[in-house]
Amino acid sequence: MDTDSHLIPAPRTTHQADAPNRLTPATTLHTAPGTEPLAALLRGTIGAATGLALPEGGGDGEGDGNTDRIVLRLDPDLPGGPEAYRLSTDRTLQNVAALVEGATPAGVFRGMQTLRQLLGPEAFRRAPVAAGRDWTLPGVTIEDSPRFGWRGLMLDVARHFMPKDGVLRYLDLIAAHKLNVFHFHLTDDQGWRIEIKRYPRLTEVGAWRSRTKWGHRASPLWDEKPHGGYYTQDDIREIVAYAAERHIRVVPEIDLPGHSQAAIAAYPELGNTDVIDTASLSVWDTWGVNPNVLAPTDNTLRFYEGVLEEVLDLFPEDVSPFIHIGGDECPKEQWQKSDVAQDRIRELGLGGENELQSWIIRHFDTWLSARGRRLIGWDEILEGGLAPGAAVSSWRGYGAGIAAAEAGHDVVMCPEQYVYLDHRQAPGADEPVPIGFVRTLEDVYRFEPVPPQLGPEAAAHVLGTQANAWTEVMENQSRVDYQVFPRLAAFAEVAWSTLPAPAARDFADFERRMAAHYKRLDALGVDYRPPAGPLPWQQRPGVVGRPIEGAPPNR
Ligand code: ACM
């Protein structure tokens, strides 16, 4: 198979040479200064799959006459930003088996992902399946760099917990698709998933629920067993370190002031105690937009500062310059009824509940800025006035992102109409728990993160894009895989490659390359949706979804 023409995401330029190459038991690995930590990652993936030891050859191997070597080195002059790389497997040019050069170590790492794809699908296994086979490489020189600096996947581990091993596996899958942001949705009404030492009840009480709605919230079905789990602080440190090794940034999300019932169940004083009996609340067991929101009190602000102090400690600035504080779907009914909230609005001279929410967001914007971090929130944070340094995840469409970018704010485009991977990917009745819009692989491939009406100055504020996987109806890793793949492959190409306008994109060619990519996903053990539809065990017959095309998704 001419693997170089099956690359996903598609590289910027490829020069083909009639000089195939190969890796052998004699192949050595040479790491020039700055690339040393990448050797273990290359041996852990390509080395494990091929069974080749790839012993260290020393330095960059220049001039030692050994042509049977992989060389990793930096070339800061490579154009295209820190993740730019050049990969050559053309022996006539380089006199090596493979030369991977990056503008920075991140660029070398991205180039290593391309090298793995060039070796064929078996290079995605964890151990060799055939002894003594040849590992051929097509002779190519590839020059590549990403279109966007923010290429993300958001994983909701609150609605359904994903054990730590699954998160590490997802970081590997993200890396294999050249994505570089992992948005970690850690808290919601249905669960609090991060250990906070000073508030142990957040996980003692908030990390589990006694039962779970099975299907969309309109479904009459319940799963009557407890569900839960959380990451200890060491688990979080491990996840962050694992991401950092793979040049993936982590954006932790602590959602406030809505989506907070798990926290209120743990610490009832965080809720609107003058409106409802918050002590009677438990971690929410069903889905939807929840009226039980945080009280806008000093106590709440101090409490969340305490949470964020530990979060900043666990997610250091180099891996997590952005901290997500949610801000989405905060119903205002309790604040309307609450004397405490109304007094606060009066004291502060605010114009109502939206401005009260904005005041809370601004508080944390100031607090995070003072600690060298940047706040990012869902697009509702625009309502009532956006805090000056804040960035926006534009999820309800393009509109908020356009307004924010035009006002000079940075934006991550993730409109639910295109890149919400919880939405069903085909119209058939056999799609498991069909939710929201039908968004096919082709729809995702034709997603354009920068709307054409943005002028160049505003367009420069689009940091990039991310796909979001909300897990209300994804009860385990296999269901997450089904929703995320294969669409994440199309998304990865949209985020990395410079593609024509949506209508002009060559989806047929993408599908042709997907034939090879499905084999890579098979080797990786990904439970993707097959092109012909769900396998019998991937279906969820009888579980109610919300399969109304054109209706608001109303998860
Ligand atoms: C969201 O989907 N509520 C951000």
TrEMBL record:
InterPro entries: Beta_hexosaminidase_sua/sub, GH, Glyco_hydro_20_cat, Hex-like_dom2, HEX_bac_N. Residues 1-22, 535-555 are annotated as: Disordered. Transmembrane segments: none annotated. Pfam families: Glyco_hydro_20, Glyco_hydro_20b. Its EC number is 3.2.1.52. It catalyses: Hydrolysis of terminal non-reducing N-acetyl-D-hexosamine residues in N-acetyl-beta-D-hexosaminides. It comes from the Bacteria. Belongs to the glycosyl hydrolase 20 family. This is beta-N-acetylhexosaminidase. It comes from Streptomyces xanthochromogenes.
